[in-house]
Amino acid sequence: MPDRPACPLTTSNGAPVADDDNSLTAGPRGPVTFDSWRTFEKLAHFNRERIPERVVHARGTGAYGTFTSTRDLSDLTIAPFLRGHGRTTEVFARFSTVGGGQDSSDFARDPRGFAVKFYTSEGNFDMVGNNTPVFFLRDPSKFPDFIHSQKKNPATNLPDPAAAYEFWANHPASLHQVTILMSDRGIPASYRHMHGFSSHTLSMWNATGERVWVKWHFKTLQGIRNLTAAEAAERPPFGAHKDLVEAIARGEAPAWSVKLQVMTAAQAKTCRIHPFDLTKVWPHADFPLVEIGRMALDRNVENYFAETEQAAFSPANLVPGLGASPDKMLQGRLLAYGDAHRYRVGANANQLPVNAPRCPVHHYQRDGAMAGMPPAHGTTNNQGGGANFWPNDRAAQGSPAPVARVTEPPLPLEKDAAVAAYDNADEDNFSQAGALYRLMSEDQRKQLVANIVAGLSQADASIRARMVQQFRAADPDYGARVEKGLG
Ligand code: HEM
Question: What angle do CA 197, 203, 205 make, to 5 degrees?
């Protein structure tokens, strides 16, 4: 054992450790004694190595990179990182599957999470989207039911495709997303070869208080690549993770062209499509894609747990000039993610380096577990000795004070709107699923039907019949083929 190693092993309180292989015992064959506190520290810390995995999107891969603006959006937003050409902003992106736990495969037939944290000069903006432009639901109260139906069977702890179809048979709003999921695009070949979408309608507002509605699109510059169910079954469970990490390590820097669809407030009033319905896309012919920048990922994490596992993305991480929308699902998410972070990572999750804004942070929140980390990216030491209440008389001495110029324009409500539980089952569930089906080639239709039949055949007759009815409502040929496939 070297007497003075270059890097001395220490306990977590910094004391050098003389022997890390042998606990203190009463004699060479005797029991361990209480003096073995170094051993106990190791064992106790080991017991706490895991934090709760994400309840959804548990399995994922993250990397850092850069967003570079290619268009000046001063007319739409006051967000500095979008005002001017060629502005660069650091990003951290995390890609994931949705339903499986950390023990599942990267190649499940499942939507992929596509979350991007933009470390802007006025705070972190998180675009927490998926690789599909729509979602299964319109109301956030259905999210836990939906996810339960996708997770393992509570009795057998095995995947349960029949339960998934039982939910969908009772919930026709899912049909558009089900059609995408069961299509040839249902299993991306890697995280590099897929698009990303905000899916939700978000908003932007400018210096004169005008608001527009926007949908974000991240178009892969690597091209789309997918796997068939048979190909996916051959892949190792960690294949998409390995692919991304290795591509970045090789210096390939996977990239996406970042685009927006923009709808004015006036257009939203007359649009034939409900602008805040997450089960619908906006036709590109009516709302063309406008390129606003490019995102490239060029740096792997140094420590998976510290960075990717503790990354905390939230749709409520908005910055001046970028806002939410009345989409009910999005509204539910504005609450859900911060709540998940406080539980999963801790009240001070935003002080961890991966989550900390790159701009100064000054507020009146105090304390909580692990508060007072060393200054990182402008986060101060539990706000030091500054005032811990507002209002105070110390703004002139540097106490944080609200910034009136970033007031978001008010959102007008519908005339005579009343608070009630509105049933939106009368929304059109089928047209866009049918239009998508009719865009598919013969080969794509065959794959779609085979993928549906593989799972739906495991459900009971009533569920099969209701699903066939839904496919028929989208397109008679779609329904007829699934019915035939089910025999
Ligand atoms: C009301 C509906 C929804 C609820 C309540 C919900 C809730 C959650 C929760 C609790 C997490 C785990 C967060 C964490 O532990 O850090 C999560 C993760 C995630 N959700 Fe949702 N979700 C909803 C809908 C959606 C939709 C519609 C999308 C995409 C358009 C989406 C995309 C994601 C992504 C990408 C992640 C993983 C973020 C990461 O990489 O850490 N979710 N969701």
Answer: 140
On whether both 351 and 471 belong to a single domain, the answer is no
**Model confidence band, residue 65 (pLDDT cutoffs 50, 70, 90):** very high
Q: Is 130 a catalytic residue?
A: yes
User: Ligand 1 mean position to 251 CA, how many Å?
Assistant: 30
Residues 216-238 pLDDT 10s:
999 999 999 999 999 999 999 99
281 occurs within a structural domain: yes
Statement to judge: residues 308 and 436 lie in one domain: no
Q: Which atom, in ligand 1's list, is nearest to the CA of 330? A: 1
CA atoms within 13 A on the CB side of 231: 12
Residue range 414-433: average pLDDT? 89
Structural domain includes residue 7: no
Phi, psi of 429 (to 5 degrees): -95, -15
Which helix (DSSP H) or strand (DSSP E) does residue 41 occupy?
Answer: helix 37-47
- In the reported structure, the alpha carbon of residue 2 is separated from the centroid of ligand 1 by a whole-number distance in angstroms of 50
**Could you tell me whether strands 322-323 and 202-205 are parallel, antiparallel, or unpaired per DSSP bridges?**
antiparallel
Residue that terminates a domain, selected from 355, 371, 402 = 355
In a domain, 139, yes or no: no
What's the number of domains the chain is made of?
A: 2
Token pair in block for residue 237: 């469970």
Does residue 341 have its Cβ closer than 6 Å to ligand 1?
yes
The H or E element containing residue 204 is: strand 202-205
How many angstroms separate the CA atoms of 149 and 478, rounded? 24
Look at ligand 1, atom 17, and give the residue with the nearest C-alpha.
Answer: 56
Q: Chain-wide mean pLDDT for the chain?
A: 95
Helix (H) or strand (E) holding 473: helix 461-474
Q: Is residue 122 part of a domain?
A: yes
Locate the ligand 1 atom nearest the alpha carbon of residue 142 and give its number.
1
- Residue 64 is encoded by which pair of tokens? 């850092």
Residues near 254 by Cβ (< 8 Å), separated by ≥ 6? Answer: 191, 192, 220, 221, 222, 244, 247, 248, 296, 297
Which atom from ligand 1 is nearest to the alpha carbon of 200? 30
Ligand 1 within 6 A of CB of 94: yes
* Residue 327 domain boundaries: 60-133+187-355
Q: With a 6 A CB cut-off, is 315 part of the ligand 1 pocket?
A: no
Cβ of 136 below 6 Å from ligand 1: no
What's the 337 CA to ligand 1 centre distance in angstroms?
7
CA 393 to chain centre: 41
Active site (annotated) includes residue 85: no
User: Is the bond preceding 236 in cis, omega lying within 30 degrees of 0?
Assistant: no
End-of-domain residue from the set 333, 355, 377: 355
Q: Does 339 lie in the same domain as 213?
A: yes
